Amino acid sequence: MVGMVAFRYAAGGRHRTASITGTGVEDGSSSVRHPRVGVAVLTMGTRSAELADLLESVAGQDTPAARVVVVGNGAPLPPLPEWVTGVELPENLGVTGGRNAALARLRQFGDVDVVVNLDDDGLLISPDVFTRLTQLYAADEQLGIVGFRIADERGRTQRRHVPRLRASDPTRGGLVTTFLGGGHALSMRMLDQIGGWPEPFFYAHEETDLAWRALDAGWKVLYAPELVLQHPWTSPTRHTVFPRMVARNRVWLAKRHLPAPSFPSIWVSGPR
Q1: Which residues pair with residue 37 across a beta bridge?
Q2: Which whole-number Å values give the CA distances from 84 to 106, 120, 235, in the listed order?
Q3: Nearest CA to 268 among 239, 244, 240, 236?
Q4: What's CA 269's distance to the chain center, in Å?
Q5: Alpha-carbon gap, residue 63 to 32, rounded angstroms
Q6: Which residues are CB-neighbours of 270 under 8 A, at least 6 positions away?
Q7: Going residue by residue through the chain (272 aa), what tens digit of pLDDT does each one get?
Q8: 41: Cβ contacts below 8 Å, ≥ 6 apart
């Protein structure tokens, strides 16, 4: 998918090339001096122990989250701490539908400026993740998306988890054109402008669709490897729907965003 990202932003026209150097943070004041963090977690009810550990790591942050929402995506929720809001969906709406449900609940509270999405089997291993994150947003009012570094318990980051070309050094951050779904943050002001997750995608490439819409609207997408989500070393093919979803959504992504001459003429039904 990184290849498609680079291709699009080299195509010219109304699309701009995104730099991959620097920190992506400019000097100056922000309209949000102390951004308030809301956390969203999706679960299928099969990782109760991992979810409990994740929530404990969220509670241990130096900068506390204003709200925490856990969505049972077509599955009943396990017992949750009293400071966590649970939402049970009657059916599995996919990553996109589940995250939109969490976003809707966080928006109802009215006191969240930055939404942090975390995988239910992830772990925040440092207590200063939210502190660093809010500093990034407070320093740059055009910062829309911040991607975390995904690393396993041995500190290894898979190449597919580095959201740019020349991915041999996962600790090199900067402005990028996509981000990882397992751990990231989204500006609520950005979401109010560009909309939420593309629900027809269900799973796969939904992050790139959101990132491209953010870039087109003038927001920045930053890969911040100092913000780490520990996550087990996995293969995407563990999901049986992976090959079909990736192939289908890659075409949908091209139809929605790429100039017509940039991809083969394929007639396929999909969202616009």
Answers
A1: 114
A2: 11, 14, 30
A3: 244
A4: 26
A5: 15
A6: 200, 248, 251, 252, 255
A7: 444 443 343 333 333 333 333 333 333 343 457 999 999 999 999 999 999 999 999 999 999 999 999 999 999 999 999 999 999 999 999 999 999 999 999 999 999 999 999 999 999 999 999 999 999 999 999 999 999 999 998 989 888 778 887 878 898 999 999 998 899 999 999 999 999 988 776 766 688 889 999 999 999 999 999 999 999 977 665 556 767 777 676 776 777 777 765 555 444 444 55
A8: 51, 54, 55, 68, 69, 70, 71, 102, 117, 118, 119, 120
* Helix, strand and coil in the chain, % to nearest 5: 35, 20, 45
pTM of the model: 0.80
Greatest Cα pair distance in the chain: 53
Cβ atoms of 49 and 33 closer than 8 Å: no
The candidate with the shortest Cα–Cα distance to 37, out of 64, 69, 71, is: 64
User: Do residues 74 and 92 lie in contact, with contact meaning Cβ atoms separated by under 8 Å?
Assistant: yes
